Amino acid sequence: MINMEKVVNCVRENRATLKQYIVDGINRGCSIVPIRLIGQHTFTPVWFDNNIDTYDARENKDKILSLFTKNPGRYGYGVLLGKQPGGFYLVCIEIDVNNKYKEKTKEKIEQVFKKYGIVYYTESTMSGRCSIYVALDKFTKDIQRITKITFIYECMENNNGAHISGKIELLGVTGTQVATVHNGIFNNEKPFFIENIFINRIERFTLAWFEIQSLFEHLIGKKLSEFYKFVRKYNFLPISEINNVIISFCVKNNIPDSQVHKIFQQIYGEDYDEKTINHLLENAKRKSHDLLPGASIIAYHANLLSESGKLSDNEEKAVRDFIVSVKMDKNNEDNIDLPDYLTDIENVYLLSSRKFTKKQDIYYIEKYFVERNISGVKEVWYVKIESDEPYGIFKQHTLVNDPDVIGVKIEIKRLIQGKINVYEIIINDELTFIPSLNITKPEDIIKEIAIKFSYYTGYFDISLFQKYYAIKIREYREKNNGKLIPYQYDQ
Questions:
Q1: Which residues of the chain register pLDDT less than 50?
Q2: d(CA 354, CA 13)
Q3: Contacts of 176 (CB under 8 A, 6+ apart)
Q4: SS3 (DSSP) at 151
Q5: Count of beta carbons in the 10 Å neighbourhood of residue 431
Q6: Would you state the pLDDT for residue 331?
Q7: Cα-based distances in Å from 390 to 11, 153, 350, 387, 472
Q8: Beta-strand pair 486-488/410-417
Q9: How far, in Å, are 74, 143, 193, 450 from residue 456 at the CA level?
Q10: Residue among 348, 347, 326 at smallest CA distance from 335
Q11: Which segments of 49-162 are extended strands (E)?
């Protein structure tokens, strides 16, 4: 905790230096304002019979200096954020997270600023927050739209010991605000406004700010519920597909379960089913995150809805803004342009991945089975790709084969124990199939499925479908922790 008595004594002793800081700040075009350090209205500004809208630091310069001379130790200083007397604009980014995350958060912001060539000034507040000051040539509506970034992770602790989300705020862009400057008052550092202030271009700062936002909260996740409300309003997609895409995206991007449930609550309202969402989350978490559909599927849905002609003008604008957010999200590693053989996707299974080296370049040849819902028929497609990295199906890759259907989707329901142990199989998520007891080898099951259910797809690749069948059996065993759950059945 700050010892205010010690602060007051230091301010009293260093008042000549602090007065010079104020003179330098005003001369450099900053709106400096005195801040009360003691008394009934601690940490409030002195307006000299003005208010926040009419206050002029240059006109009140002599009064400010007199105040410091006649009342040593009683006043510190602050700055009015927004338009400055020098013609530029001043903003302050305030980082409000606990100490565990503060330095990492500050480092990430500084890395982005350096990337875009943004000149900035930092200081730590007495409450442990971090403030970053930036001077700009102007404000735009784009930068005024997003002034608060809430972390998707819980990284603060309130007085009751409960963990809450941290936040980063951009102060000064929506109106004049007072910021208490701590350097020189609560520590021995010099305040930023005595330096030659560099004025950054708003276009560069806007790009940097949007990238900072994407680092700490998913731009997609923030608008996900709003977009899928439109999807549901116009019955544009089946509920099962909405659930599958959102769950996959959230699990893939490590969004906390509490946030996932909030998204679904906002989409479904009274129809929200917590048990269903928990079940879907459990299933998705069993799968490799690299094989879960992510942002590319969401962008695909958004483009389809935008071009459907169903939306009002305001809804159309909201969806177009959402598509921009998807493309700007720096957390997304997917290839945002979804190829046609990955549209209408439900699940992806990796059959094999082999690493090769050619002239010191490493690449991977990978084979996949892709379950797709095409007009109600759950088709299974075989896709072979070349990629610069493993699990490349949703990333940039090159096709090796001509993707094509090999059969209809199946799910293993249970093991039936009888004269011959066989699996009860769900075909196309709707029909139950139990293999005949006169089978003599495993491929007989595949051939029987092909004969009985070829009307779904018109074609079965027996060899490839048998490999797909083996993957589904393995998936069934993993769901049951490696154990087979038999069902007694006599034919």
A1: 154, 491
A2: 72
A3: 52, 53, 80, 81, 82, 83
A4: strand
A5: 13
A6: 64
A7: 60, 28, 10, 7, 22
A8: parallel
A9: 83, 52, 72, 10
A10: 326
A11: 75-83, 89-96, 121-124, 130-136, 148-157
Residues in a beta bridge with 355: 364
DSSP character at residue 341: G
Give the H or E element holding residue 411. strand 410-417
Q: What is the separation of C-alpha 455 from the centre of its chain, rounded to a whole number of angstroms?
A: 42
- CA dihedral 237→238→240→244, nearest 10 degrees, is -10
Using an 8 Å Cβ cutoff, are 191 and 184 in contact?
A: yes
23: left (phi over 0), alpha (psi -120 to 50) or beta: alpha
Q: Is 425 left (phi over 0), alpha (psi -120 to 50) or beta?
A: beta
H-type helices in 42-124, by residue range? 61-70, 99-115
* C-beta neighbour count of 158 within 10 angstroms: 8
* C-alpha–C-alpha distance, residues 450 and 461, integer Å: 9
Helices (H), 293-383: 295-306, 313-328
Kindly state the tokens that stand for 329: 């999200």
Identify the bridge partners of residue 164 per DSSP, sorted by sequence position. Answer: 156
**CA distance linking residue 40 with residue 54, whole number of Å:** 24
Positive or negative: CA dihedral 75, 77, 83, 88: positive
3-state secondary structure of 139: coil
pLDDT at 145: 77
Helix (H, G, I), strand (E, B) or coil at 480: coil
For residue 190, count other CB atoms closer than 10 A to its CB. 14
Cα separation of 52 and 54, whole Å?
6
138 is written with which tokens? 């102007």
Tell me the pairing of strands 130-136 and 199-200.
parallel
Sign, CA torsion 160/162/166/169: negative
Cα four-point dihedral sign 466, 467, 471, 477: positive
CA dist 447 and 441 (Å) reads 10
> Counting beta carbons within 10 angstroms of the beta carbon of residue 296, is it exposed (0 to 12), middle (13 to 18) or buried (19 or more)?
buried
* Amino acid in the structure at residue 65: L
Instruction: Return the pLDDT at 165.
Output: 61
Pairing of the two strands 163-171 and 32-36: unpaired
Indicate left, alpha or beta for 437 from its phi (over 0: left) and psi (-120 to 50: alpha): alpha
Tell me whether strands 422-427 and 361-374 are parallel, antiparallel or unpaired: unpaired
Q: Would you say how long the chain is, in residues?
A: 491
Domain ranges of the chain: 4-216, 219-338, 408-488
